[in-house]
Specification:
With 494 residues, the chain is of the alpha+beta class. Helix content is 39%, strand content 13%. It contains 15 helices and 13 strands. It has an 8-stranded mixed beta sheet with strand order 6-8-7-12-13-11-9-10, sandwiched between helices. The protein has a 3-stranded mixed beta sheet with strand order 1-3-2. A hairpin with a 5-residue loop joins strand 12 and strand 13. Helix 1 runs parallel beside helix 3.
């Protein structure tokens, strides 16, 4: 049996397992496509061993088998995907590879709920530039991934779409706000998925689900609208492999004359350059994280030393309590504006559709004095200068991603009392937002695991515009401590 016949036989076996034989729920299959990254899948398409339609059909079967337990995909578009590959076979580096968009992202002709009951019937009139560029690279969008309301929480368990479940333990959070994307990639439904990050929303779910996630520099990537600057939020992906992330990055970074950085291009492997890496494990509140998180960060530092890098202790001096207050003030601006617009347009009635956390943020912002927005901008500029000064002496800053392993679903739900939820978020998400404020690139690398078998990501950051250093280091870490063969026990998703 040649390779193509083997792939076809395996696809048929996967189809049988996901339909006729799956009377007790999803089954583990020997579908080889589920274990390949996007680059390998595209290579199979290019060689003629498999067609784009077969890749989409295989992803459909995996979704049918696994997603009822995960709730990672909230809008399926497999029919549209099959029609696309039938009408015009995709070309490009990712030709035929199934892909998910986050449900905060517009995709022409498909609903975009933004995770909110307010927009359950909203349909996007157009696709933003980075979506068009992704499709031009050959990626085939098969649906939209689960996200909390407006991406405002670090756990994906919104009231409109229901919680996304972590493939490593269905009782635990996927993180957020790209939680559905990370869960789908971790489970092998798709090999990579679009994600966005305004305060940690790529790195947090990557850490919780054991996949790779890099947040680019502020202003680096194509934005979600046709403007040169998309704000603190940046778009990229979560992936199974560093090479997939690096390739998609090279295809969707900005190359216009107004871009703040020269394009990085494709980083295809590690560098011979040895780095000065600063390690800090305390949160910005000065607290040590959960013991298993601290151990994972310290083990990563030892791994880096073993690879020849220099590791020293250090961190920029930032007042954590002050930072958290200013950051959450900025975070609340969007909800406050939305509530004001809804009241002006339709009165109080639509507000009942918003989640308690969203309303709480809006109410909190309403108490702020005039000039608060200007104060946020000044404070953020000061943080950026502090971080820039820190990176003048080191190449990479190594920290945990989160202060504790993935929490149980419900602990960060949007209907937890506002002050309690605010405190929990501040303490858990204590390492990621500084890089959104400073504009620095940062990545979550799946190097750690809890005693209970839950993933623990380790965060590496670099100076603004220096994604090349991070990708090169990520390749090195991936080779030294591979994660590609570590998968959740899919039979547990019954």
């Amino acid at each position: 049996m040649d390779r193509r016949e083997f792939l076809k036989a395996s696809l048929a076996a996967a189809a049988w397992a996901a339909t006729g034989c799956a009377t007790h729920g999803p089954q583990r299959t020997e579908d080889p496509l589920a274990r390949l990254d996007a680059s390998a899948l595209a290579a199979h398409v290019a060689s003629g061993e498999v067609t784009p339609a077969e890749l989409v059909q295989a992803a459909l079967r995996r979704s049918a088998a696994l997603d009822p337990a995960l709730n990672a995909i909230v809008t399926e578009s497999f029919d549209r995907a099959l029609a696309r590959v039938a009408a015009s076979p995709p070309s490009g580096p990712f030709a035929g590879v199934p892909y998910l968009l986050k449900d905060l992202t517009d995709w022409e002709g498909v609903r975009c709920t933004q995770g909110s009951r307010l927009y359950l019937d909203s349909v996007s009139p157009s696709s933003p530039p980075f979506v068009r560029k992704s499709e031009a690279a050959g990626l085939v969008v098969v649906g939209k991934s689960n996200t909390p309301e407006f991406g405002l929480l670090p756990s994906t368990e919104g009231l409109a779409l229901g919680p996304a479940h972590n493939p490593w333990s269905l009782a635990h959070s996927t993180g957020g706000s790209s939680g559905g994307a990370a869960a789908a990639v971790a489970a092998g439904i798709v090999p990579l998925a679009e994600a966005s990050d305004g305060g940690g929303s790529i790195r947090i779910p990557a850490s919780c689900c054991g996949v790779f996630g890099l947040k680019p520099s502020h202003g680096r990537m194509l934005a979600d609208v046709d403007v040169p600057d998309g704000g603190l939020d940046v778009h990229h992906c979560v992936s199974r492999s560093v090479r997939d992330s690096a390739l998609l990055f090279s295809l969707t970074e900005r190359d216009d004359t107004a871009a703040p950085f020269a394009p990085v291009g494709l980083v295809s492997g590690p560098s011979a350059r040895r780095l000065r890496i600063a390690l800090s494990t305390r949160t910005y509140l000065g607290e040590e994280p959960h013991a298993e998180v601290k151990a994972a960060a310290e083990a990563a530092a030892k791994l880096c030393e073993g690879l020849g890098h220099t590791v020293l202790e250090g961190a920029p001096r930032i007042s954590g309590a002050e930072f958290a207050d200013w950051f959450l003030t900025a975070w609340a601006q969007g909800p406050a504006q939305l509530v004001e617009q809804l009241r002006d347009r339709a009165g109080e009635a639509p507000l009942a559709l918003l989640e308690p956390w969203t309303l709480g943020l809006a109410a909190d912002y309403a108490k702020k004095p005039l000039g608060t927005a200007e104060g946020v901008a000044r404070y953020f500029a000061g943080v950026a200068r502090t971080v820039d000064d820190f990176f003048a002496g080191v190449d990479v800053w190594l920290t945990p991603v989160l202060a504790a392993p993935p929490p149980l679903l419900g602990e960060l739900a949007p209907d937890v009392p506002f002050e309690t939820l605010r405190e929990r978020c501040i303490r858990w998400v204590a390492y990621t937002p500084v890089h959104n404020v400073a504009g620095t690139p940062a990545m979550s690398v799946p190097l750690g695991w809890s005693r209970d078998g839950l993933p623990i990501g380790v965060q590496f950051a670099a100076r603004r515009g220096d994604e090349a250093t991070l990708f090169a280091l990520a390749y090195e870490l991936e080779a030294a401590q591979p994660w590609r063969d570590r998968w959740p026990a899919l039979e547990a998703l019954r």
